[in-house]
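Question: does this match?
>
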Amino acid sequence: MKLNKVISCFLIFLSISSIHAQNKMTPEEVARKIADRIVNSTTYLFENKKTGETYKTVKDIPLSKDIQVSSKYNNWHYTNGVTNIAMLELADKLKDKKYEEYVLKNMNFVFNQGNYDYFKKLYDQTLAEKGWKAVRDVNWCMLYRGKRLDDNGPMGASLIELQGRHPNDAFLKYINQTADHLNTSEPRLSDGTIARIWPHENTIWADDSFMAISFLCRMGQFTGDQKYFTDAANQILNYNKYLWCPEKQLYYHCYHTDNKEHGVAHWSRANGWLFMAQADLLSRMPKNHPLRDAIIKNFQQQASGIARYQGKNGLWHQLLDKEDSYEEITGTAMFVFGIARGVKEGWLHPDFIYVAEQGLKGMMQKITPEGNVTAICVGTGIMPSLQYYYNRPTQEDDPMGEGPVLRALVEMTDAPKYTEINAEQQYDKIGKKK
C-alpha cells in the first residue's frame, strides 16, 4: 500500500515537473520542437501495404491501390495545407529556410512526374471501372478529384505561397485549376454562399469558410484581381448571416437550407475555422477595399464572443458553451492565432492579448516537452446530436492540430505583453467640478 502511494506521488511529481518545464519554454522553442519533429519524421517513401515493400519513386512499378505514401505528412489533405502554411510562416518569422525547404520538398515529391503520373493513371482507371466511392482508396485521390474544398482549398493556398517563392509550372497549373473550380464549379446558394450538398441539400458548413478563403485571399494577393477578395469577404458576411447565434455570440457548425434549421453544436474548431479565415483575409485584403470595414467589424464581434467562453485553464472546450466537454487544442490554437494577429494589426483592442496569453498557457499544457501535440479532435462531420461531438476521439501528433498550433505559436513569438492602465496614473486627469 505504501509503495503504491510512493509511486503515485512520484508520477504526480513527474507530471507537474513536465508541465512546469514546458511552461518555461518560449513559443519559438516549442514551435521549433514541433516543426523539427515533423521534418525529421517525414520519409518521402511509398509502401506496398500488402507486401511491406518500400519505394522512393513509383514510376516503374505496376499500378496498384496498395501503394500508399508511408508518411501522413506526404498525404494530399487539407490538414497538410494548413501545416504547410504554418511552416512557411515559421520560416519567415525565424528567418530559417529549413522550414520553407521542407514544404518545397513535399510539393516536389508530389508533382514529380513519375509519382504524379502514376497515381493519376490509377485514379482515372479506378474511376472509370468502379466509380467515385472506389477512388477514395487511391493514394492522393483528393489531388485529382477536385470536387470539394477539402480536396483543393488549403493545399492550393499553400501552393500559392510556395509559387511566389519557387515558381513551378506544375504548381501554377494546379493553382489555376483550383481557382477555376471555385469560380465556376463549387456548389453555391443563389446569393453566392458556398454550400455543400450533404448531409442535406445545400448545407452551409462553417469549416468551408477557411477551406475557401485561405485560397481566395491568397489568389487575390497573387493575381491582384479584386474579385477574389470580394468573393472571400462576401462569404464571411453571408456565413455570419446564416450561422451566427446572437444569444450566445457564437457560430453554429452548420445551417441546413432545406429545412431552415441550424445544427445542434457550437463546435470549437468550426468557430476557429471562421476566425482564422477572417484573420487571413484581413492580412491580405487591400486597405481601401469597400468591404474591409465590415470584415473588421465582424472579426471584432466574433473575438468578443470567443473571449466569453475561454475555460479556467486558458483552453476552450470542444463544445464552446458546454464546460463538461473536453478541452481541445485546435480551436484554442485558432483563437490564439487570430487574437494575437488581430491585436498586432490593430483590428482588436490591446486588452485582447490577455486572452491569447492565457490560451497559450493552456496550449502548453497539451504539448509535451518533446514537442508532441495532444488533445487534437479527430476529423468531424455534421451530426444532429450533441453526443456525437462530446464523444469525438482525440489524437496526438496529427496535422489536424499541428498546423493551427504552429500558426498560434508563430504569432505569439513577437506578440505584445498585456498591460493595463494604472489607476494612479489617471488621477491627474480627474478634475474638480466647476
